[in-house]
């Protein structure tokens, strides 16, 4: 069933621009299209495109409780510039309290399992609630961001969350993203100019060195595939 829907979406939007595809989805799945933003460069481009046409697409963000102040700064600038409401989703307080009481505030440094547990509580569980009941999930994923994302498709079914994902910037390069931001005066996180490319929680993100992989600054102490569970590929 999901394959047929994806093929239909690909067929109907084959010659559409990103803006036209977003408008089509918003009309085709009224009140069932959501976009998750972490205020990174890719997400800021998509927010700008949604706001530009004032599309009825719900924008939400996951506030893990461990974000950089610079992330909150760009959050504030974004809602001021675009006058677009951004829904905030928090982790369950009891789950966070239990984690800190039993394992301390920095358990994620001790093992991959502990880190994934923290990611699940602070990110995956709130995302599950935010996506529930919706039909289309728009993301800022790009193929060149990591090896795990090389085989992504423009539209794909996410079995874990039982939803169809639309990855509008899939084939964009980082340079194209940055050019759009500069050309359109899109607010961006100040950390991007300090060597931070992929920005997540403050304790788990560092700047990357010249020549390092884009994702090298995320969970840099690990040798795993460096995904938090939000995206299964």
UniProtKB/TrEMBL annotation:
Record keywords: Cytoplasm, Iron, Iron-sulfur, Metal-binding, Oxidoreductase
SUPFAM superfamilies according to UniProt? Adenine nucleotide alpha hydrolases-like
Q: Which gene encodes it?
A: cysH
The entry's free-text remark on the cofactor is: Binds 1 [4Fe-4S] cluster per subunit.
The main location class comes to cytoplasm
The keyword Transport appears for this protein = no
Q: What subcellular compartments does it reside in?
A: Cytoplasm
**Function recorded in the entry:** Catalyzes the formation of sulfite from adenosine 5'-phosphosulfate (APS) using thioredoxin as an electron donor.
Domain of life of the organism in this record?
Bacteria
Q: In which pathway does it act?
A: Sulfur metabolism; hydrogen sulfide biosynthesis; sulfite from sulfate
Know the name of this protein? Answer: Adenosine 5'-phosphosulfate reductase
Query: What's the family?
Result: Belongs to the PAPS reductase family. CysH subfamily.
Gene3D superfamilies according to UniProt: HUPs
Reactions catalysed, as given in the entry? [thioredoxin]-disulfide + sulfite + AMP + 2 H(+) = adenosine 5'-phosphosulfate + [thioredoxin]-dithiol
Provide the active-site residues from the annotation: 228 (nucleophile)
Enzyme nomenclature, EC number: 1.8.4.10
The top EC class is oxidoreductase
User: Which Pfam families did the record assign?
Assistant: PAPS_reduct (PF01507)
Q: Where is the Phosphoadenosine phosphosulphate reductase domain?
A: 33-207
Q: Name one GO molecular function term.
A: phosphoadenylyl-sulfate reductase (thioredoxin) activity
Q: NCBIfam families of this UniProt entry?
A: APS_reductase, cysH, PRK02090.1
Required cofactor names: [4Fe-4S] cluster
Q: What are the binding positions for [4Fe-4S] cluster in this chain?
A: 118-119, 201, 204
């Amino acid at each position: 069933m999901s394959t047929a829907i994806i093929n239909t979406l690909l067929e109907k939007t084959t010659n559409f621009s990103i803006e036209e595809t977003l408008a089509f989805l918003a009309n085709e799945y009224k009140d069932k299209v959501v976009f998750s933003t972490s205020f990174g460069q890719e997400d800021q481009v998509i927010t700008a495109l949604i706001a530009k046409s004032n599309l009825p697409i719900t924008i939400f963000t996951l506030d893990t409780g461990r974000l950089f102040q610079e992330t909150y700064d760009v959050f504030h600038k974004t809602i001021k510039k675009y006058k677009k409401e951004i829904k905030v989703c928090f982790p369950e307080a009891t789950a966070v309290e239990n984690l800190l009481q039993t394992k301390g505030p920095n358990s994620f440094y001790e093992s991959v399992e502990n880190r994934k547990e923290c990611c699940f509580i602070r990110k995956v569980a709130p995302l599950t609630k935010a996506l529930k009941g919706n039909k289309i999930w728009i993301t800022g994923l790009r193929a060149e961001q990591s090896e795990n994302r090389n085989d992504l498709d423009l539209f794909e079914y996410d079995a874990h969350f039982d939803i169809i994902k639309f990855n509008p910037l899939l084939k964009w390069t980082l340079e194209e993203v940055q050019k759009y931001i500069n050309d359109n005066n899109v607010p961006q996180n100040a950390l991007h100019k300090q060597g931070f490319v992929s920005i997540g929680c403050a304790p788990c993100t560092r700047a990357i060195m010249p020549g390092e992989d884009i994702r090298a600054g995320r969970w840099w102490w690990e040798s795993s595939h460096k995904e938090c569970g939000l995206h299964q590929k």
